[in-house]
Amino acid sequence: MPRYDFLDPEEAMTGEKRKFVVSINKQAKIGNTTLNEIALKNYPFKYELVSLGDVEKMAAKGYKYFMDMVLMPKQMDHAQPEAMIPSYIKYKSANKMFTNRYTQFRYYFYIRDLRTHDAYITTKLKGQQDVYPGMKSFFKKIESDAAKD
Prior knowledge:
Layout (H helix, E strand, L loop, with lengths): L14 H28 L12 H6 L4 E9 L13 H4 L3 H4 L7 E9 L5 E2 L10 H18 L1
Helix pairs in contact: 1-5
């Protein structure tokens, strides 16, 4: 599952730029805590929060799946596999991935097979405007689908 990355405030030099980096790191810490709390309460499987830059390393360690997401038009009612570029290829950091300021788009969550790069959605595709409630809904759907198997 993607996590927010921390930036090096020393690389940001001094002054306002450094303050900005420190503030991003505070928000990243809060965001990662929130992601972890949501997953602990709602995700039915073992997981690890991982930087997008480390996903391929995790695959090399034997991890098979990655919870991924994509932004697509809110009117979408079926999967658009060609738009589902893996986030660890499309983005350098989840910090940008989790920021959705476009109200005509929604987050769509899915599971990525790290061995084949196939994408698996749940039985019902439902986009969410906000990332955290969207994750909760997705995790509940995964649990529901897993119980049917």
